[in-house]
Write a structure and sequence with these properties.
With about 220 residues, the protein is of the alpha+beta class. The protein has helices at about 10, 20-40, 85-90, 145-165, 175-200; strands spanning about 1-5, 40-45, 50, 55-60, 65-75, 80, 80, 105-110, 115-120, 125-135, 145. It has two domains: about 1-40 and about 145-200, no CATH class; about 40-135, no CATH class. The protein contains five helices and eleven strands, in the order βααββββββαββββαα. The two termini are about 35 Å apart.
Length: about 220
């Protein structure tokens, strides 16, 4: 992981007089915004064990991050369809009834920390759900994934400078420069978004996931139809 503090040498020379905490806060805010808009920070989460007649499950992203969006989910080798809570209620009005437990077909991201499976699983299966998610730093994070920083450092720095330079009534305030850095940041977001979309392009294949294993090696999946 790379600390936000490590980006200070790229930020402070352009905002003379800005304190380290203020600059770090701007870097963090820029990183969060960048991850949300570009969806460049993606990871496969640890496999989830389903429990018989339980529909609610925790999302467990890496430290200092939260799940912005679940990109796709696979249960026991079969892709799950994403639904909103409202659409799920229309399709399966009694999906919370344990008598209707079965094989999950849908998932609902209820929040940044919880997702639902529907129908709720009828049986317990170890590590039967694979999730890929878009992540973002928490509001109190002090660091960000090395790969994201290495690939998109310039965009994050430009985003931080855009925020700092447009701050009113500061010794470093410069609205013209802020506009320039804002344009550079927006360009960086677009490029990262295109790269992230290309990396997650669906491919046609059939996969069956055998839920029980003890190997520490993580299986990697690409979205498929």
């Amino acid at each position: 992981m790379s600390t936000f503090e490590s980006l200070l040498p790229d930020v402070l020379p352009s905002v003379y007089g800005c304190s380290d905490p203020v600059a770090i806060s701007a870097i963090r805010s820029a990183a969060i915004d960048f991850c949300v808009k570009s969806e460049a920070y993606q990871q496969e989460l640890d496999p989830v064990t389903t429990v018989a007649k339980i529909f609610e499950y925790d999302l467990e992203p890496p430290k200092n991050s939260v799940v912005h969006k679940i990109l796709w989910a696979i249960h026991d080798g079969e892709k799950l369809e994403p639904l909103s809570t409202g659409l799920l209620e229309r399709r399966l009005p009694d999906w919370r009834d344990k008598a209707n437990a079965g094989i999950p077909k849908y998932f609902v991201q209820q929040s940044q920390s919880i997702f639902y499976l529907a129908p709720m699983p009828a049986t317990t299966k170890v590590e039967s759900v694979i999730l890929r998610a878009v992540l973002k730093p928490t509001a109190t994070a002090t660091e960000l994934d090395d790969e994201v920083v290495n690939n998109y450092k310039d965009a994050i720095v430009n985003g931080a400078l855009f925020r700092l330079l447009r701050t009113p009534a500061k010794g470093w305030t410069d609205y013209n420069a802020a506009q320039m850095y804002g344009a550079l940041y927006a360009e960086g977001v677009r490029e990262a978004e295109n790269e992230a979309r290309a990396a997650n392009t669906p491919i046609a294949r059939s996969v069956k996931y055998g839920g029980y294993h003890t190997s520490p090696t993580r299986r990697r999946y690409t979205q498929y139809r």
